[in-house]
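Problem 12. The chain below contains 167 residues. Write out its predicted structure in token notation.
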Amino acid sequence: MTDEQEAIERKVLDAVERVSPDHDVVRIDPQYAATAEFCAKYGYSEEESVNCIVVIGKSDPPVYAACLVQATRRLDVNGTIRRKLGTRKASFAPAETTVELTGMLPDGVTPFGLPADLPIWIDAPVASLPRVIVGGGSRSLKLYVPPAALTGLPGGELVEGLSKDPA
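Solution.
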């Protein structure tokens, strides 16, 4: 692990500890960091797996938010998210932009340790789960937390209609 990855993980672990002492640290093989591969390898369900996805509102200057959604659902980028961002167009932020904004690696982005000025929008169904698994800032770490740890984050907001059922 590089010094940079260690620093990111330390920042994330400090942030989760501040909001929720009730969490589990799950060390993983980085080749299984992507959601589907992680769930298959480590036995977590996609329903309890919550992805942290950075979105961009296309304006001048652009606006960003981190969105938390279950792996079984799809973000409503062109509806709820676009309206909340206050822009005419919105999309997923490019990977390089996500890394630049968060300092975190793809498949490891987490709501813990994000910049203070980045809103964190949590899809309402997430709050009804007993526990959720989220990224840990690197591809080698995941965090298993109660949903209250997410809603207790500075900038964390529960949002109705943030996602749609893909069915």
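Discussion. Strands lie at 24-27, 50-57, 63-70, 74-75, 90-92, 120-123, 132-135, 141-145, 156-159, 163-164. Students who got a different answer should revisit the alignment rule from Section 12.3.
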